[in-house]
Amino acid sequence: MLMHTPLNTRHREAGAKLVDFSGWEMPIHYGSQIEEHHAVRHDAGMFDVSHMLPVDIRGDAARAFLRKLVANNVDKLQTTGRALYTCMLHEGGGIIDDLIVYFFNESWFRLVVNAGCADKDLAWIESQRDRHAAGLEIQPRRDLAMIAAQGPNAASRLWAAMPGLQELAAPLKPFNAAVVGDMLVARTGYTGEDGFEIMLPAKAAPFFWQALLEAGVRPCGLGARDTLRLEAGMNLYGQDMDESDTPFDCGLGWTVDLSGDRDFIGRDSLLRLPRGQTLVGLKLLDRGVLRAHQPVHTEQGEGQITSGTFSPTLGFSIALARVPAGARPGDTVEVDIRDRRLKALVVKYPFVRNGKALI
Amino acid sequence: MSIPADLKYTASHEWCRLEADGAITVGITHHAQDLLGDMVFVELPVVGRKLAANEECAVVESVKAASDVYAPLAGEVVAFNADLEASPERINQDAYAAWMFRLNPDNPADLDGLMDADAYRAQVESEAH
User: Fold this and answer.
1) Percent of chain A with pLDDT over 90
2) In the predicted model, is pLDDT for residue A262 greater than 70?
3) Can you say whether the dihedral through the CA atoms of A319, A322, A324, A328 is positive or negative?
């Protein structure tokens, strides 16, 4: 039995093609994945991301606990509503999940974790709480829905749909959030465009979705979400990384804060383990489509594509690939696609930001 | 569901049309393109290639996935639709107009062994349940 988000009926009404995503029945597209992709790059689209789980951390020891729990340093969060992207590691340095931490006050932080990791994350967080911060409250917020409105016109259409939000949400800078009544409006996303992720009571979500629809925001499925995030050079948990990878193996070294002597879980392993691999961007030079798990041959040795697709914005195929350290932008590599060996160029990613090609 | 009555079909979702000159035109069905989603890449067999029945002979890729296309019957490729390589989305727009390749069948009677529209419809409906 698949789990349903509060917006399931809306998706059915809109003719969505629904698929099983980590046990949730979610829209993959509403007709055309590519048109939805373009809507987000050029106008505004919305995604039901209610399958993701917000987890509130409440109590006096919240900050100290999170300094221990995650690899980035929550001391960077000093103003209300500030958000931080981080990995949560096990003792071996492998990634249990990637998540966003929001700071509201010294006794209230919120984590937003991936749907497919939610159960194991909660079990892990609770076990670590028992060891390091007994008494701290860990609150999974299954009572909340989450809608991402993304695209260059997301803000203006959001104000049209919900005029009451504008005063507090319009001034938000990227990676900042505002509490508006019983909603949290965050200027975050997974598309490389301006936009907002809104957490709100499940009961209110269908009305909110309908208001955005009437304001011209196009419903978009997980298919477009995947091509958008890949163009934006953002990792997907379970695809570009899992528990056997450290942040350094998958291009997320920038999220690890090794400064000072903060003793976070996984630190010792990260300092000890060799950093022999890296994540690079690829642009396919020949005709075809790069896909996950295709072997990549570089001068330094063999690697593998972790995420690959046809890029609707660029009009050719792009990929993220884990390769031996040393591969540099400008290098030509070869990729095995079926029975052929095709040429690809190593490029810097992101590939696309704010509607513009970067490669 | 669009399943023209005048075509023949395979279990792997190819359609076949017998032309006046005896050649067989092959494409993928409306149902197949609907399963795959937006098409972004097509790889077609070259003219002169000899195909065995059920041999993998072409590839269609959507944003979502790559999928093999199989020869509905044995024969030699006599033409392919080069326009599709530049505009794979034509398969989504009209799967029965967007033919992929033509072959001269080794044995024209093989066509009789393929499914008619009713049989194909029954297969598609059974797969949906």
Assistant:
1) 99
2) yes
3) positive
Distance from CA of B70 to the nearest CA of A (A): 15
- Residue located via tokens 């039901």: A48
Q: Compute the radius of gyration of chain A from its Cα atoms.
A: 20
Residue B125: C-alpha distances to residues A16, A121, B22, B36 (Å): 19, 40, 31, 17
Nearest to A34 among B38, B59, B61 (CB): B38
Q: Note the pLDDT of residue A339.
A: 87
Tell me the one-letter amino acid at A209. W
pLDDT exceeds cutoff 90 at B127? no
Q: Where are the domains of chain B?
A: 8-107
Q: What's B44's DSSP letter?
A: -
Q: Is B2 helix (H, G, I), strand (E, B) or coil?
A: coil
Residues in contact with A197: Cβ distance below 8 Å, sequence separation at least 6, in sequence order: A49, A112, A146, A147, A148, A186, A188, A189
Domains in chain A and their CATH numbers? Answer: 8-45+143-231 (3.30.1360.120), 276-357 (2.40.30.110)
SS3 for A300? coil
B129 pLDDT band, cuts 50/70/90, is low
Q: Which residues pair with A286 in a beta bridge?
A: none
Confidence of residue B33 (pLDDT cuts 50, 70, 90): very high
Predicted confidence (pLDDT) per residue in A48-81, tens digit: 999 999 999 999 999 999 999 999 999 999 999 9
CB–CB contact B63 A33 (8 Å): yes
Nearest by CB to B38, from A32, A287, A288: name it. Answer: A32
List the one residue out of A30, A54, A334 whose CA is nearest residue A209. A30
Q: What are the tokens at A354? A: 């704010």
Against a cut of 0.90, is the pTM above it?
Answer: yes
- Given CATH 2.60.40.2550, say whether it is the number of domain B8-107: no
Report the candidate in A319, A242, A267 with the shortest Cα–Cα distance to residue A91. A267
pLDDT per residue as tens digits for the range B36-95? 999 999 999 999 999 999 999 999 999 989 999 999 999 999 999 999 999 999 999 999
Per CB-CB distance under 8 Å, the chain B contacts of A40 are none
Per-residue tokens: B13? 């979702």
User: DSSP H helical segments within A186-316, as ranges?
Assistant: 205-214, 222-231, 267-272
Token pair 């701290």 in the structure block, residue: A136
Contacts of A263 (CB under 8 A, 6+ apart): A68
Q: CA dihedral defined by A41, A45, A49, A54, rounded to 10 degrees? A: 80
Name the strand (E) or helix (H) holding B32: helix B30-36
DSSP B21: T
